[in-house]
Hints:
The protein is of the alpha/beta class. The protein has a single domain (3-233), classed as 3-Layer(aba) Sandwich (Rossmann fold), CATH 3.40.50. Helices cover 26% and strands 30% of the residues. It is built from 7 helices and 14 strands. It has helices spanning 18-27, 46-58, 75-83, 95-104, 107-117, 126-129, 175-178, and strands at residues 3-7, 34-38, 62-65, 87-90, 120-124, 132-137, 151-154, 159-164, 186-189, 193-198, 201-206, 213-219, 222-228, 231-233. The strands form 2 sheets. An 8-stranded mixed β-sheet has the order 3-2-4-5-1-10-11-14, with helices on both faces. The protein has a 6-stranded mixed β-sheet with strand order 7-6-8-9-12-13.
Amino acid sequence: MGKIVAIGGGELSKGETYILDQYIVELSHKNNPKLLFIPTASKDALGYITTIKEYFGELGCSVDSLCLITNSYTDEAIRSMILDADIIYVGGGDTVRMMEKWKEYNVDSYLKEAYEKGVVLSGISAGSICWFEFGHSDSDCFINNGQWDYIRAYGLGLITAAHCPHYNEIGRESFDNMMLGEAIPGIALENKTAFIEEDGKYKVMKADQDSRVYVLNYCNGTLQKEELHEGWVDIQFLK
Length: 239
């Protein structure tokens, strides 16, 4: 079992997820952890990389970035960067294209290997969807400036559930329809909240007590939605 911190959303530069990010660092149990930022979903946006380096640097991390869009690496170098990290942080953006690029460079396999090794896996938005079976994604907005809709984006399946980030935002309520007929639960996170796995146990954290987290289950022809409160939660996941 491994460690995952999936954050539903929030402005990192405004400190909206600070408590959650601080927990990510603490979860590494290192004084000066090595954090690897993977900005594939934002197409290696330079400003994003700079922000992450400064932000997590202030939290005591040594920060490096794996830039699959703008840099070239050997397969051995990519695997080494991932497995040598104490923390992996995946940024937001285009989930679908990110997953395609990861498969092209075997990043998906190496992240699963890192999970088994106990590396802390974390991220926000697209960087939270990627740890689940599938997620409620706005990836089509990156290729269609006009009409687009939320779609299903497939992740690594390390948590056997579906996921919706930014659940408090307009349009995200369609995640409920996406869950109809599904055998796995859905984890819906509003901004400033996180769903966390620690060695097979699960808990909810909030950076804002007014933000909410829900679990959705389709059972006997109806969709049931239950609010999850902060702390350890008892959820049955298929394995």
